[in-house]
Design a protein that fits this description.
Blueprint: H1 6-31, H2 40-64, H3 78-91, H4 98-116, H5 125-157
Helix pairs in contact: 1-2, 1-3, 1-4, 2-5, 3-4, 4-5
Length: about 160
Amino acid sequence: MGMTQSGNIETFNDLIRAHRDRIAEYQNATLRLRPQEAGLASTFTEIIRESEQCIADLTSRMISEGDVPENRTSFEGKIFQLWMDLKVKFSANPNSSLLDICEKGEDAMLKCYREALKHPGTFAPDDIHLLNSQQEIVTKTHDIIKAKRDQYHELVKNNQII
Protein backbone atom coordinates (compact mmCIF):
# COMPACT_ATOMS: atom_id res chain seq x y z
CA MET A 1 0.00 0.00 0.00
CA GLY A 2 1.42 3.38 -1.01
CA MET A 3 1.58 6.48 1.14
CA THR A 4 -1.63 7.74 -0.37
CA GLN A 5 -4.43 7.39 2.16
CA SER A 6 -7.74 5.94 0.99
CA GLY A 7 -9.44 9.36 1.14
CA ASN A 8 -6.73 10.72 -1.12
CA ILE A 9 -7.16 7.86 -3.57
CA GLU A 10 -10.87 8.66 -3.70
CA THR A 11 -10.13 12.35 -4.24
CA PHE A 12 -7.66 11.63 -7.06
CA ASN A 13 -10.11 9.22 -8.68
CA ASP A 14 -12.92 11.78 -8.36
CA LEU A 15 -10.79 14.43 -10.06
CA ILE A 16 -9.79 12.00 -12.81
CA ARG A 17 -13.47 11.20 -13.39
CA ALA A 18 -14.42 14.88 -13.40
CA HIS A 19 -11.69 15.58 -15.97
CA ARG A 20 -12.86 12.66 -18.13
CA ASP A 21 -16.35 14.03 -17.99
CA ARG A 22 -15.08 17.53 -18.78
CA ILE A 23 -13.34 16.11 -21.88
CA ALA A 24 -16.63 14.53 -22.99
CA GLU A 25 -18.45 17.82 -22.34
CA TYR A 26 -16.08 19.81 -24.53
CA GLN A 27 -16.12 17.15 -27.25
CA ASN A 28 -19.93 17.47 -27.28
CA ALA A 29 -19.73 21.25 -27.14
CA THR A 30 -17.39 21.25 -30.15
CA LEU A 31 -19.95 19.29 -32.16
CA ARG A 32 -22.63 21.82 -31.23
CA LEU A 33 -20.69 24.92 -32.27
CA ARG A 34 -22.43 27.11 -34.79
CA PRO A 35 -20.43 28.72 -37.63
CA GLN A 36 -20.21 32.06 -35.79
CA GLU A 37 -18.73 30.27 -32.78
CA ALA A 38 -16.08 28.40 -34.78
CA GLY A 39 -13.33 30.35 -33.03
CA LEU A 40 -14.17 28.48 -29.86
CA ALA A 41 -13.16 25.12 -31.32
CA SER A 42 -9.45 25.72 -30.66
CA THR A 43 -10.18 26.90 -27.11
CA PHE A 44 -12.21 23.75 -26.48
CA THR A 45 -9.40 21.60 -27.94
CA GLU A 46 -6.94 23.29 -25.55
CA ILE A 47 -9.21 22.53 -22.59
CA ILE A 48 -9.48 18.87 -23.65
CA ARG A 49 -5.66 18.70 -23.80
CA GLU A 50 -5.45 20.39 -20.40
CA SER A 51 -7.75 17.79 -18.83
CA GLU A 52 -5.84 14.95 -20.51
CA GLN A 53 -2.64 16.34 -18.97
CA CYS A 54 -4.27 16.65 -15.54
CA ILE A 55 -5.44 13.02 -15.77
CA ALA A 56 -1.96 11.88 -16.81
CA ASP A 57 -0.34 13.74 -13.89
CA LEU A 58 -2.85 12.52 -11.31
CA THR A 59 -2.52 8.97 -12.63
CA SER A 60 1.27 8.88 -12.59
CA ARG A 61 1.28 10.37 -9.08
CA MET A 62 -0.98 7.55 -7.90
CA ILE A 63 1.06 4.89 -9.66
CA SER A 64 4.27 6.23 -8.11
CA GLU A 65 2.61 5.72 -4.72
CA GLY A 66 1.74 2.14 -5.62
CA ASP A 67 -1.96 2.83 -6.13
CA VAL A 68 -4.03 1.88 -9.13
CA PRO A 69 -6.30 4.58 -10.53
CA GLU A 70 -9.81 3.42 -11.30
CA ASN A 71 -10.69 3.23 -14.90
CA ARG A 72 -14.40 3.37 -14.41
CA THR A 73 -16.90 6.15 -14.04
CA SER A 74 -18.97 5.84 -10.91
CA PHE A 75 -21.11 8.18 -8.91
CA GLU A 76 -19.77 7.20 -5.53
CA GLY A 77 -17.18 9.91 -5.05
CA LYS A 78 -18.22 12.93 -3.03
CA ILE A 79 -16.36 15.39 -5.23
CA PHE A 80 -17.49 13.74 -8.44
CA GLN A 81 -21.09 13.84 -7.18
CA LEU A 82 -20.70 17.57 -6.52
CA TRP A 83 -19.48 18.05 -10.09
CA MET A 84 -22.37 16.03 -11.58
CA ASP A 85 -25.02 17.85 -9.51
CA LEU A 86 -23.74 21.27 -10.52
CA LYS A 87 -23.30 20.30 -14.14
CA VAL A 88 -26.75 18.76 -14.54
CA LYS A 89 -28.39 21.74 -12.90
CA PHE A 90 -27.09 24.05 -15.62
CA SER A 91 -27.21 21.94 -18.76
CA ALA A 92 -30.93 21.48 -18.13
CA ASN A 93 -31.56 25.19 -18.72
CA PRO A 94 -32.67 25.70 -22.35
CA ASN A 95 -31.96 29.44 -22.14
CA SER A 96 -28.30 28.88 -21.47
CA SER A 97 -25.89 29.42 -24.29
CA LEU A 98 -23.19 26.85 -24.84
CA LEU A 99 -20.75 29.22 -23.11
CA ASP A 100 -23.03 29.59 -20.08
CA ILE A 101 -23.00 25.84 -19.68
CA CYS A 102 -19.22 25.65 -20.20
CA GLU A 103 -18.68 28.39 -17.64
CA LYS A 104 -20.82 26.60 -15.06
CA GLY A 105 -18.85 23.43 -15.79
CA GLU A 106 -15.64 25.34 -15.09
CA ASP A 107 -17.18 26.63 -11.83
CA ALA A 108 -17.94 23.04 -10.88
CA MET A 109 -14.40 21.95 -11.74
CA LEU A 110 -12.94 24.70 -9.54
CA LYS A 111 -15.27 23.71 -6.68
CA CYS A 112 -13.94 20.15 -6.95
CA TYR A 113 -10.38 21.40 -6.46
CA ARG A 114 -11.38 23.67 -3.57
CA GLU A 115 -13.13 20.72 -1.94
CA ALA A 116 -10.13 18.46 -2.56
CA LEU A 117 -7.74 20.97 -0.96
CA LYS A 118 -9.95 21.62 2.08
CA HIS A 119 -8.06 19.03 4.12
CA PRO A 120 -4.46 19.35 2.97
CA GLY A 121 -3.21 17.59 6.09
CA THR A 122 -3.98 14.20 4.57
CA PHE A 123 -1.87 14.80 1.45
CA ALA A 124 1.85 14.41 0.90
CA PRO A 125 3.56 17.71 -0.06
CA ASP A 126 3.92 16.47 -3.66
CA ASP A 127 0.18 15.83 -3.83
CA ILE A 128 -0.62 19.31 -2.52
CA HIS A 129 1.80 20.81 -5.03
CA LEU A 130 0.15 18.89 -7.89
CA LEU A 131 -3.40 19.81 -6.83
CA ASN A 132 -2.46 23.47 -6.33
CA SER A 133 -0.83 23.72 -9.75
CA GLN A 134 -3.81 22.01 -11.41
CA GLN A 135 -6.15 24.36 -9.57
CA GLU A 136 -4.21 27.33 -10.98
CA ILE A 137 -4.53 25.94 -14.52
CA VAL A 138 -8.26 25.30 -14.06
CA THR A 139 -8.72 28.81 -12.63
CA LYS A 140 -7.08 30.39 -15.69
CA THR A 141 -9.30 28.33 -18.00
CA HIS A 142 -12.38 29.27 -16.00
CA ASP A 143 -11.50 32.95 -16.42
CA ILE A 144 -10.96 32.56 -20.18
CA ILE A 145 -14.34 30.84 -20.61
CA LYS A 146 -16.03 33.44 -18.38
CA ALA A 147 -14.54 36.28 -20.46
CA LYS A 148 -15.70 34.63 -23.70
CA ARG A 149 -19.15 34.12 -22.23
CA ASP A 150 -19.39 37.79 -21.18
CA GLN A 151 -18.18 38.84 -24.63
CA TYR A 152 -20.84 36.62 -26.20
CA HIS A 153 -23.62 38.15 -24.04
CA GLU A 154 -22.39 41.62 -24.97
CA LEU A 155 -22.63 40.81 -28.69
CA VAL A 156 -26.12 39.34 -28.23
CA LYS A 157 -27.21 42.43 -26.30
CA ASN A 158 -25.97 44.68 -29.11
CA ASN A 159 -27.74 42.50 -31.69
CA GLN A 160 -24.44 41.59 -33.32
CA ILE A 161 -25.23 37.89 -33.07
CA ILE A 162 -28.49 36.10 -32.64
